[in-house]
Amino acid sequence: MTVRVLQNGILRAEVMPGLGGSILSVNHLKSGLSVLGRVPWDPLPLPEPSGASPDEASWLARFGGGWPVMFPNAGDACRDGTTTHGFHGEGSVTPWAARTEGEVLVLTRRFFAVPVTMTRRLRLIGDRLEVAEQIVADAACSVIWGQHVTFGSDLLAGPVTLTTSALRLAACASYDPPANPLIPGSQGDWPHLPGPRGLEDLSNPPEGAAALACLCDLGPAPWAEVRRVDGSLAVRLSWTADPWPLAWLWIETGGTMDAPWFGRGRMIGIEPCSTWPATGLAAARAAGGQVIALTAGEVRTAHIALTVYRPNS
């Protein structure tokens, strides 16, 4: 499957249009260090034939790590009225049309599950990867819109600290694997959430953990940073509060022993999203979560940027 490459004198990014338009890797050229997460298995290099992964296991079989988009669903597969949505949405596991406009990679998909066309414009500017997205609705529909940004590789090769503009945190009420350090459904002020052993400080992500929470009250210009404690590498993710007023925080530091992880996963996901909880469109709406209701002809835009830098350089 063809991989498209964006490169300047500072960063190199690899993108796979044929499988979710996923950003597979982002490398800092001078240091040779990589910042996006990779899974400890060989993913299937094929899009989902139905356009909708029926469950998490099917989705993970195609997930290599990196950064796919979540649209028009995020979280669990569901049926919303007459529409069937796959796990993390059609956009994350289906082919995107690709073209270049100068130094910009343009990805486009006209969706099957909803009457929406999305255009994503990716470019490198200095030490930043910038992604601009636009959706156009042909008819009224409801969607969840998010970004599945996962960090790992060299960035998590040593201890890290996490900082963010978020003021509040909420632990997922429905996610409670054996290695969960959080009390499901608990809430707190950043960076603390209650856990069975007392307050957990998520600015220092725990080892051997599997956790899912939501970064809340991010302000008008949301951001989050992951930095190696030794100062050798850091990333800053910033995005528009519309349509992403919150971000899912997924911590997988060797805590999941089930297949296909077997305790080998090492990723931190910072996932700007329109909606919480992370249970799929139908269940999120039923729980009082805000989903995006598009009208016929409506156009929405969003921007997200990833900056990669070396604090000690």
Describe the structure.
An 8-stranded antiparallel β-sheet has the order 8-9-10-11-26-22-21-15, with no helix packed on it. Strands 14-24-23-20-16-17 form a 6-stranded antiparallel β-sheet, with no helix packed on it. A 4-stranded antiparallel β-sheet has the order 1-2-3-4, with no helix packed on it. The protein has 313 residues and is mainly β. The chain is 4% helix and 43% strand. The protein has a single domain, classed as Distorted Sandwich (Beta-galactosidase, Chain A, domain 5). The model has no long low-confidence stretch (mean pLDDT 97). It has helices spanning 56-62, 281-286, and strands at 4-7, 11-16, 22-28, 33-34, 69-70, 78-80, 83-85, 97-101, 104-110, 116-125, 128-137, 141-143, 146-147, 150-151, 160-164, 168-171, 187-189, 192-195, 198-201, 210-216, 223-228, 234-239, 246-253, 266-273, 292-294, 299-309. The chain is built from 2 helices and 26 strands.
